[in-house]
């Protein structure tokens, strides 16, 4: 029996050979349209984007960041190649060697991509161990490469489309103007038209969907949130703020917290012989006033109604974007004081914090200022020995908003009895100024200012440097505490990361950050941008999740009579139990 030899391309019919040749030629022409220097830049920034960062992330996030960085790298590389050609630079190898050079470069590119994926898998695994998270997804490299390549190609093709449109406009304008002015006018016209098109369609459409979605969510009620019956709570039958007006997060806040039985049990466990009280929680929803001042006035009216001025402590808390109040932070104050406390908050939005951060950074500090000023004005009318100690607080965007009520640290000390702020975004003016003015030789992630006389920073509880006792000066009152984790991308994100290396990437890394986290132009900015979004998914004590740390902070800022370090440890353990404190999408 004769076995037929395998059929080769040369044995194929002439029509088939012609189609194959045309396809190869078309593929070659398509590939040749890409800038070699641009491809080099794409590979370099792709690899840099996969380098170690603050938080592990899913293949989706990693693919997106790698694709965006690859597109930017291609643009930069193409620009460099174009500039080189304009000044007469040519490849140093002869024309007949170009094919070999291309194959060598392709092999190097594959090696770099594979190496970057190996590094990515290694640091992700080590970071997950460091942060007590599970193992990474096994098919991660394939997903990352596929998504990054598709997104980078889409962005490059979109840029090429805009370039073609610009050239067409330049030809039209060139009938009236000289070549150079015509090109400039064409670029300006296309940029403006693109902005208006994107802003008027894509951005407006996304904004509408988000507003509709979160407005509907705000009308819902979390499972387990029930209308309070105690008059000390907003939303109760006696309240001036109806239950239906509080919004989803407001309803959760006023219906939550420790009961008097739980407060009494905790007091006995830490050896405090005291009578406990029903904590006061007042809240005003977004629709309870015509503007921020009107909403704040409703909060003050609720403080009057509940006799909050007779309590030992009053905490003015600025919420996050959706109106959320951290349950662990509120519970820490109430357990600390056995319920002899009042917490006041108000809603200024129902959108997630990241949406507010992108689209409306002015409202949170305006809301924080309106609420604190209203409460402080009423509080100032009372005799000094007959009013509660007044504190300011907030987490994340709430910390940014709360600090909007103050011009400086001196202002905080003059008008409050202390403050606790957690996960403060790096663009917060007061925090940024204090961090920049830190004592020489102290770290950006854990500054010491003026020897620790008024303000101190606390890191992750696993870090020995977290002790609030650190400081060369006596810690005077009022006291201010900033809680921040080295792995919290919300704290460390800044547009300066695009081209400047910050001090926290020059200095020793924090306890929950890999030591090989480094800075690379452009890529680090996008890495930390993703860290910004995934930080709220971290376990307690890491990233943007603050739980037990509230015990240390409030015990340092507002300790009740008879309080002890052992009581702080017990409270920290209690808070570390599941509290629903993750602020993802808050």
UniProtKB/TrEMBL annotation:
InterPro entries: Alpha/beta-hydrolase_catalytic, Alpha/beta-hydrolase_N_dom. Signal peptide: none annotated. It holds the Pfam family Abhydrolase_9_N. Residues 280-570 form the Alpha/beta-hydrolase catalytic domain. The chain crosses the membrane at residues 30-54, 60-80, 100-119, 139-159, 180-198. Residues 50-258 form the Alpha/beta-hydrolase N-terminal domain. The keyword Lipid metabolism does not apply. Residues 220-247 are annotated as: Disordered. Residues 234-247 have a biased composition (Low complexity). The keyword Transmembrane helix applies. Keywords: Membrane, Transmembrane, Transmembrane helix. Residues 220-233 have a biased composition (Polar residues). This is Alpha/beta-hydrolase family protein. It comes from Cellulomonas avistercoris.
